[in-house]
Amino acid sequence: MTPLSNVTDMRLRFLPRMLAVLLCAALVPVVFGEGQDNWERYSQKKLAVPDTTALRKCITISKNGIYVGKMNPAGNAAVSIEQYSLAGAFVKNWTPTFTNIGGLTSDVEGNVYVFDQGVSKVLIYDPAGTAVRNFGSAGAADGQFSAASGFMVQAIAVDADKNIYIADYGNNRVQKFSPTGVFQLKFGIKGDLPGQFRDGPAAVAATPEGTVITCDSPNEDWYHLSIFSASGKLMKRGSRGFGWGGNRSFPVSSDGVLMVWYHNALFSFVSTATIESTQGVPFPDSVETRGGAFDPAGNFWAVRDKQVDCLLRRMRFESHRPTKAVPQPVVSKISQLPGSKIVDIDYKVADSDTPSLTTALVAFTDGGKSWQQLVIPKTFTGATSGRLGAGVLAGGTYRVNWDAAVDLPGKNFATLSFRILAKDERPEIGVHYVTIPADSTNAAPLKISIKQMQEDDLWDLWLWLLATGDSRVALAGNTVALTAAGQAYIAGAPAPTAGPSAPANLAHNGSSSTVQGRAFACKLIGCRPATAAEVTRARAGRYNLIGLDHNSVVLPNP
What we know:
558 residues; mainly beta
């Protein structure tokens, strides 16, 4: 898959003479097939736990380290915290002890927040384990928590402004507190209607876009995910079918992926935009999970019984252990002043090992995903240097000011979906090759991709080229056309056997990439289509790469 991160969609409603209402919506690549990364579990990536006999529960990861709740010998309550480095090495046991940790989280500074449901308190510590403050007590009044909570491991969340959210399960509500622990508001009551909780919120998460997601009820036949604004207003309730027993994993990545635990070995990616899941992620063994968290590189760590395992984030084409982090951009805010046609788009971009990235902005009308609905913002009223395009520093927050009236003259539309794409120094499509050595019937070794060049990868490629103004491609209705420069670029290039036939100037027909489009992609990343004989060779014998077909590619021999 491409090393282009397309991880956030935010919808802006244009309302006459009013501040635009914004709906935060993260379109994550694994859910919609629009980005480049996925997760893969490698058994060698796990925490070096000092006590292999102890059960564990709850986990949080900050820029300073990994913090895991350790359970008592009876295995019925988490009573202490283990601290690890980001590399997975054990650091120390904290000296504070707890009655039953119902959730761990951390803020941007690395402070660690503990919800001790046994005493109905929130306790805050610095990264080394020194107490900072605490608040809360048992009860039903504002600022109090029900001690009769269910099995919870994700009952606390902290947003980007360090506001604190508690899933107050026994009182059927979520409470919000200031960074200093002052009660601000509450939302939710007992009930079956949207915005209500049948048996109490079982988990809570704060998203990068400033919304709050909850999991309603630990009853297996009921689960709903709901999105609330930071002020407690219900924005959407999803369909049933999320989680089991808690929910025991409910972390959000920095680019808007919610990981929900289904049962033992199965997790599900959930978009923080749609709170609908389209893809499950299995561990190879069925071990009970008691918590999950994302590290700064976007890798997912799961507390699984007595161990803490990792799903490494990787390029979709790669099966080897990744050596580079995936760019993680996310649109954080869309705004429009009353009477103005200038749209302000704020976004963040993170990459732990690439200091400078290239980014691009696209939009789709009416929340769609077709070439006919694609809009490429080109006219900006403020500076874009260092904010959009090449040379965007990772770790920053940026604003660009788009003059929508110029780029969309006379358009009358209800919504736009904005997406930020980001690329590091890797090629537009990342391909992992394996080498099949020479043998008695083949004089030369064969370097062939371990997977096919998939249509999702190619769709991302066309989107990136259009967004960055590449002169070799252009929009043509609901298709992507090769310009004269594009046709000249692939002149003489080997033609793939896959892809629909089409006029010579067509790269994507609105549904799939054409033969010419696949030839363009191959030349762009320096490979060529695999021949039928090469696919047969790769599938044969001990190599047994049975997933390869005419969409596979090879590196030409030097």
